[in-house]
Fold this sequence. Notes:
By secondary structure, this protein is of the alpha+beta class. It contains 14 helices and 12 strands. It has helices spanning 84-90, 129-142, 188-201, 212-218, 226-229, 233-237, 247-251, 258-268, 279-293, 297-306, 337-341, 351-360, 373-379, 440-451, and strands spanning 8-11, 17-21, 148-155, 158-166, 182-183, 315-316, 347-349, 391-392, 397-400, 403-410, 413-419, 424-431.
Amino acid sequence: MDQRTGCVLIVVALGVAACTTAAADDSSTPATASSVADTDDDQSPSTEPTPDAGAPDSAVAEAPATTPGPSTIPIVPAADALSIEEEIAADEPTFEVEPLAPLNLDVFAVDDAGIGGTTPAATGPQPTGWAAFDASLADALIRNGNTAASVAVSIGGDIVHSAAFGWRTGDLSEPAEPGDRFRVASISKTLTSIALLQLVEERVVGLDEPVGGLVAGWLDVGNTSAAVRAITVRQLLTHTSGFGKYDGVFFRGGSTDCRQAATIGLGSGVGGRSYRYSNMNYCVAGVLLEALTGKSYESVVYEQVLTPLGLFGLRLAPTFDPGPDEVAHYSTPGRNYMETLGAAGAWLAAPDDLVTVMNSLDLSTPGWKPLELDTLREMRTPVNGLFDQRGYGMGLILYGAGRFGHTGTIESTHAMMVNRGDGVIWAITVAGPYPGDTPRLESIINRAFEAGGFIAG
């Protein structure tokens, strides 16, 4: 069902445009402002140790970017926008989440009027149910300096609620709507992993087959080391190939696009094989998909993943110039990180899209599934760990006890998707600087579930 059907647009008390839909109830009450804001100080993101230094960034890492500035009205950056260094640090996965608060799944399908009634107050009845859930999110995310945010929640494979807050454009002329697409940054890695693991299942390539030489040949990179040629699919997807961070290449204009970035990485060599999170792994993985299929990375992901899931409108986007139904994110003039990240972080998607992708990785729910059970177990097994332990799997951040997902962080972008392991999947996308520590989105949505009366007990 089109989630925009029956969409009701209002201006909430915060001065923010909000639009909501509910698949289970098309007459869902629109969001109003919550009286509780999430204003805790940001926590510094934790990082995983890096046992091996890997290869140093190439000298071209500080070369000026060639990407032109925005041709549309820019969004004015917030005073507390992340610096490039903070942005890079925030992209590092963390594996800690709050203790799982049980949800009362029965109340999700009940009309707002039937969820706990209303709470009398001096200013009149307070919102309940999805209206209170939306008000809490709008209060936490828009009050704190973001220009737009959106959310989707699914239960048992069905999307039961979608909402959007704020404004699609920098001049505040177009309110955001459910279905609008945001940058999702490193959540792109999940799509890349699914597509590559499908080729493993089809025996086009082996999970532990050396593929570094194949990618180097595809890019015409000469004189690669034996260690580069020995890189495997598993090592790329688990960040154990030995690539360095290459922050200058991806975030400071050291490359014009992902293919050139991959050329730099392959030509510079690799270090040890311990876990080290690096966008270079997934940039190379995207090029590997092209080398294996002879098609563009984007078309492979559409053919193998998005189209079978019934998804459309997602795309690899440039740093500037959002298209129709896409939310503008502030970008510092002259940067080109979207072009360089490619398969590692350049997709645009809506929360509805993300929960649909996450649902496809859950064999307990209906619908088309891109991967078989054994492959899904591989995806959810961390480096040097056991199934469902905390750590990084293959394109998934594993939070333990059946919870998994991914986060995404780049300039003015924070996104998170989580399968809670109890039948509930949610995704949040944000345009703006808050929260600086992206995993805090989990705390923010948990407070929204509480505000809506969805927490059991």
